[in-house]
């Protein structure tokens, strides 16, 4: 807390006054991290009538956001080590997945109406597929690079993985995926 208050040019007691405890501060940090991602995501200018292209944009956004914001991955890893104990105490936690799932849901519905997407795919599952594949690559890049004997932190490796995620998601949602 001392280091945090020094960095903030504040006092420990002020942090406790505003956040109540170290845990309260950590919950606020988690909420802010999710809020910033949602704010960035809501700035995407997606064309619901072009669901394939828009879904690709969502995927590219998620992968690039994770890559540009490694602190997001670090905090998620830390919170998962604690079994979600802090975020489960957040009154706003559920608000943060709603926009992403709602956007994907709209894209899936548009694609079904246009006859390009399967009607039996849930937005939640597509969201989890995108988040999981993007997160895993970024969060484990250092160890995977060593394990695989190649540098997965290069822009080329990231672009290749992003293209693979796009292909995987499209093969999952398209009514007639390309062979």
Description:
With 179 residues, the protein is mostly helical. It has one domain (28-173): Orthogonal Bundle (Tetracycline Repressor, domain 2), CATH 1.10.357.10. Helices cover 70% and strands 0% of the residues. The longest helix has 21 residues, at 22-42. The N and C termini lie far apart (56 Å). The relative contact order is 0.12. The model has no long low-confidence stretch (mean pLDDT 87).
Name the helicity range: 55-70%
* Structural class by secondary-structure content: mainly alpha
The H-and-E topology, N to C, reads as: HHHHHHHHH
Main beta sheet strand tally, sense and closure: none
Question: Can you name the CATH architecture?
Answer: Orthogonal Bundle
SSE blueprint and pairings:
Elements: H1 2-7, H2 12-19, H3 22-42, H4 51-68, H5 70-81, H6 98-113, H7 123-139, H8 141-148, H9 155-173
Helix pairs in contact: 2-3, 4-6, 4-7, 4-9, 6-7, 7-9
């Amino acid at each position: 807390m001392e280091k945090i208050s020094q960095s903030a040019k504040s006092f420990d007691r002020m942090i406790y006054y505003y956040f109540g405890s170290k845990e309260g501060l950590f919950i606020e940090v988690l909420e802010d991290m999710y809020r910033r991602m949602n704010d960035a995501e809501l700035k995407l200018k997606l064309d619901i009538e072009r669901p394939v292209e828009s879904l690709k944009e969502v995927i590219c956004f998620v992968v690039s956001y994770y890559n540009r914001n490694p602190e997001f991955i670090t905090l998620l890893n830390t919170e998962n080590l604690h079994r979600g104990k802090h975020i489960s105490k957040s009154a706003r936690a559920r608000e943060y997945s709603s926009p992403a799932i709602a956007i994907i849901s709209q894209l899936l519905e548009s694609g079904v109406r246009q006859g390009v997407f399967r009607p039996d795919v849930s937005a939640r599952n597509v969201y989890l597929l995108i988040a999981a594949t993007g997160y895993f690559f970024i969060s484990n890049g250092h160890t995977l690079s060593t394990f695989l004997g190649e540098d997965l932190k290069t822009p080329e490796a990231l672009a290749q993985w992003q293209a693979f995620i796009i292909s995987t998601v499209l093969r999952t949602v398209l009514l007639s995926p390309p062979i």
